[in-house]
Amino acid sequence: MSVAKLRIYRGDSNGGQEVEYEVPIEEGMVVLDAILFIQANYDGDLAVRWNCKAAKCGSCSAEINGMPKLTCKTRLDTLPLDKPITVHPVKTFPIMKDLVTDVSWNYEVRKKIPPFKYAEDTDWKMQQVDVERSQEFRKCIECFLCQDVCHILRDHNEKNEFFGPRMMIKIAELEMHPLDIEDRKPMLREAAGIGYCNITKCCTDICPEGIHITDNAIIPLKERVADTYFDPLQWIITKIKGS
Amino acid sequence: MANGTAQSSVTLRTDAWWISPLITAIVLGSFGIYSTWRAFSNVDFLVQPYLSPFYSPYILASWWPFSPALLILWAPLGFRATCYYYRKAYYRSFFMAPPGCAVKPMAKSGSYTGESKFPFILQNIHRYFFYAAGVVLFFLWVDAFHALWFEDGFGIGLGTIVLFVNVVLLSMYSLSCHSFRHLVGGRLNLFSKYPTRFKLWEKISGWNEHHMLWAWVSLFSVALADLYIFLLAKGIITDVRFI
Ligand code: SF4
Ligand code: SF4
Ligand code: FES
Ligand code: FES
Fold first, then answer.
1. pTM for the complete prediction?
2. Nearest to B12 among A88, A130, A149 (CB)
3. What residues does each domain of chain A span?
4. Given the CA of residue A60, which atom of ligand 3 is nearest to it?
5. For residue A44, how many other CB atoms are within 10 A of its CB?
6. Was domain A3-101 assigned CATH 3.40.50.1220?
7. CA diameter of chain A
8. Is residue B4 pLDDT above 80, yes or no?
9. Contacts of B110 in chain A (CB under 8 A)
10. A232: phi > 0 → left, psi -120 to 50 → alpha, else beta; which?
C-alpha cells in the first residue's frame, strides 16, 4: 500500500516544529482524513478543528504546502506525493495549539459593520435581479482563508487599518442590497481601509466557495468610494440630481 | 518519526509560484522599452494609408518640439497604468507586493499603505483615463477606416486588417473595464428599475470576466500594429493587398 508523508506543525504560542508522519493512502482521501488518521493512530493530542468534512462549515482551514486551503477539500491525489506534504496552521491568526488558531479578531471586526437598515415604509417585495449580486456573497462559509492570505493582514499585520476581504464582501452584500438604506462608504474609506487593498487578488484565488471577492465586491466598492470622494463630475451630477 | 523545521521564511509553497510574476515582468518590461523607443523616435510611423496607433491622432503643433506621440500617449498609458488588472500585474511582478499568494512581500512590515496614500491613491481616477482613452480609441477607428482608402481608391491590405483587429481588441479592452462596468450599472442597487442598464451591465460583466485576456491581447496587438508599420516604413517588408 502506498503511503503519504505529512509534515505537520506541532506547537503553540511558545513555538513549535514540523513532525513527520506516514499515512496509508486510500482512494479519495483528503488531507483532513490523513490528519484524523494520525490523531487516531499516532498522536491523539494533535489539535485540529473541523466539523462538516464537506467544505461547508469553514473550520478546517490550514496551509497545505504553503497554500491556504480547506483540509477537508484538498484531496491527496491533487498534491505531489513524492515529497512530504506540509500542513501548518493559518499564519495570520495567533496559534492556540498545532493546527488550531484563534480567529476571534474576525468576529470583533464583523461587529463594527453597521447591520442591514431599512426604511419605515419598506415594501418587502424584492425582484430576483436586485438581490442576485448580494446572494453570491452569502455563499461565504467564514473559513477566513481570504483573511489569512491577504498580505495586508498576513505580512503587514495592519489589523487596525484594514477589515480584510471577508468583511469587504459582507459590506458589499449590505451596500448592494436593494432595500438597505445605510451608507457605509465613509466607513469603507476610513475604518475599513478599502484603500489598503491593492487588488492583487489572492483572496479570490484561494476562496473555496469561488466567490469573486475582488471583481464583484472590492472593485465595485472602490468604484463607489471613488464616486463619492474622487470624482468631481459624479459629485456635481449627484448634487444636481439630488437638489 | 522524524522532526523538522519550517522550510523557508519567504514561503512554504513548493510550486513554481515565481514563474507567473517573472513572465509578467519580462513582457510588460519589454513592452515598456519598445513603446518608449517608438514614442520618442518620431519616425517610421506613417505609410499611407496606415498610421501607427502610437501616433494617433496625429497632432502637428508648431509649439511642440518633441515627438507628437507624447501628446497623446499619456491617455492610453494612464488608462493601462491605473487599470485594475494591470495594477494587480505590476504590484505583483514589479513591487512584489506580494509576488505571489502566501509569499512574503518585499516591503517591510509597517511600511505598507497600499492605495490609501499618495501616489497610489491616484488610482481612484481610473475612470477619467477611461474617458481620455475613449477619445483616442475613436481616432483609432477613424484610422482603421482610413486604411481602406489607398492612392488608387478603395482596398484592403494586410495593414488594414492589422489596424482593424487592433482597434477591435482595444475596444474590447475598454468595454470590459471595471470602471465602465460600474458606470453602466454597477452603481445601481435597483436593477429592476433600469432594465436597459441592467442588460448592458450583464453584457459588460461577461466581458469583464475576461478583462485580463483583453488587456494582454490588446497590448500585443497595439505593439504588433506599430511594428508592422515600422517594418513597412523601413522597407523590410512590403504590404500585401487583398483587394
Ligand atoms: S470569502 Fe471565501 S475565503 Fe473568505 S471567508 Fe468566505 S468562503 Fe472563506
Ligand atoms: S485583493 Fe485586496 S483584499 Fe484580496 S488579498 Fe489582495 S490585498 Fe487582500
Ligand atoms: S470541516 Fe467543515 S469546511 Fe472543512
Ligand atoms: S479596469 Fe482595466 S481598463 Fe479599467
1. 0.96
2. A88
3. 3-101, 104-242
4. 4
5. 8
6. no
7. 76
8. no
9. 156
10. alpha
1.10.1060.10, 3.40.50.2000, 1.10.1740.10, 3.40.50.150: CATH of A104-242: 1.10.1060.10
* pLDDT tens digit sequence for B18-49: 999 999 999 999 999 999 999 999 999 999 99
CB-based burial of residue B203 (10 Å sphere; 0-12 exposed, 13-18 middle, 19+ buried)? Answer: middle
Q: Is the CB of A169 inside a 6 Å radius of any atom of ligand 1?
A: yes
* Residues A44, A189: Cα–Cα separation, whole Å: 47
C-alpha distances in angstroms, A189 versus A207, A227, B56, B144, B168?
A: 24, 12, 38, 43, 37
Q: What are A160-215's pLDDT values in tens digits? A: 999 999 999 999 999 999 999 999 999 999 999 999 999 999 999 999 999 999 99
SS3 assignment, position A100: strand
Ligand 3 atom at minimal distance to the Cα of residue A73: 4
Closest chain A C-alpha to B68 CA, distance in angstroms = 29
Contact at CB, B88 and A226, closer than 8 angstroms: no
First to last CA, chain B: 76
Beta bridge partners of A203: none
